[in-house]
Amino acid sequence: MVEIKKLPASFCCTAAGNEPVREWLKTLDENDRRIVGQDIATAEYGWPVGMPVCRSLGKGLYEIRSDLAKGRIARVIFCVTGQRMVLLHGFIKKTQKTPKKELDLALKRMKEVTS
Length: 115
Known about the structure:
5 strands; globular; 3 helices; 35% helix; single chain
């Protein structure tokens, strides 16, 4: 039996034609990319998924939570529109709380893809 994605992921595409999350993923090393990719796949196949992999940030935003090597933490912020997950923003988290600038950027991109 083939497992079907409940919420397929797609990359947010900016007006300039960039895909910021895809570009960010390419800056990570192969092992980190694999970890983030597996966590995204967990959300795609198992949606809705709760902690520790996924968490609501409010305002229609969710985060994929990835623990990388050397104690680093990655986050991919996404929204759900239609029947798909749109990956809006990815970053390495350096503080306990998600920085406002990261949330604001994700909200800006969400408005662009849902309008």
